[in-house]
Amino acid sequence: MDFWLIASIVLAVLSALLLVLWLRALRVAVNQSTAEQLRIDLELSLAEQQGRLGIIRELQDVAVLAVSRLVTGAEAARYAAERDLSSAVRAATALAEDGRGALADMRRVLTIVREGESIATAQPGLQSATDLFRVMRDAGLVVGFTESGLRFPLKPGAELAIFRILQSSLANSLKHGGSGTEVKIAFTWTQDGLKLQVEDDGIRAAARRSSADAGEFAARTSYTIDDDLKALSESISGAGITQMRERAELFGGVFNAGTVPGVGFSVSAIFPSLRFHNGVHGVNLGR
């Protein structure tokens, strides 16, 4: 009797310990995913702001030259006024024109600065995809992108969801496939929907890096029918996968992720009625 009591207590303690360890591992995984997403966001924001700083510098140089011309023209007008009033009037007219030009240049600088301030606090969307691809290429991925169909405007929430799915997919490709992994991204637009497909060759990339010859590479990338069946039936889990699935489902999407034996990993999100979806329903209220 005492034995079973002790055994029950030990099992309860072990179960509690395993639960604590599992929760801790889950927290670490979520924190890593959040940190990676934050890093990419910061790099994208930095790239956008650097571009704006370049434009600001160019416009600032133009404005400085315009102000210099104003000073020179004002001095010329002062000397002309002492000798010929009509020349002074013409010089003053030219000064007014140059002043308007300089004012316009400075207003353009202020406009770009304000745009930069507002965009720095805005959420990324599909317009940020090009910068995302550049950041991931710099990190070591070989990114290819194709788009077919006619793109249509999306609600800001839908754009953000698609961008986050794309961002998480690329981050996973880099994390699991490593440098040199080839990633193919495809946007397929239909009349009312969108299909996002992200496929990488992470398994082959890892084999390329670690194989000494073609024979070893072939052995590392070989697979069987059982591997295919397992890939078709397995349920991929993890904090990043769960977040991508939830983002897709929020806008009526169907999310799939799985291993491609001997090749890498594939992610797809299909949104049948994205044109009209606002995160609550996908009905065309205009009909």
TrEMBL record:
GO process terms (BP): phosphorelay signal transduction system
CDD domains, alphabetized: HATPase_UhpB-NarQ-NarX-like
Catalyzed reaction equations: ATP + protein L-histidine = ADP + protein N-phospho-L-histidine
Superkingdom: Bacteria
UniProt EC number: 2.7.13.3
GO molecular function: ATP binding; protein histidine kinase activity
Residue span(s) of domain Histidine kinase/HSP90-like ATPase: 159-272
Alphabetized UniProt keyword annotations: ATP-binding, Kinase, Nucleotide-binding, Transferase, Two-component regulatory system
InterPro entries: HATPase_C_sf, HATPase_dom, Sensor_HK_TwoCompSys
EC primary class: transferase
Protein known as: histidine kinase
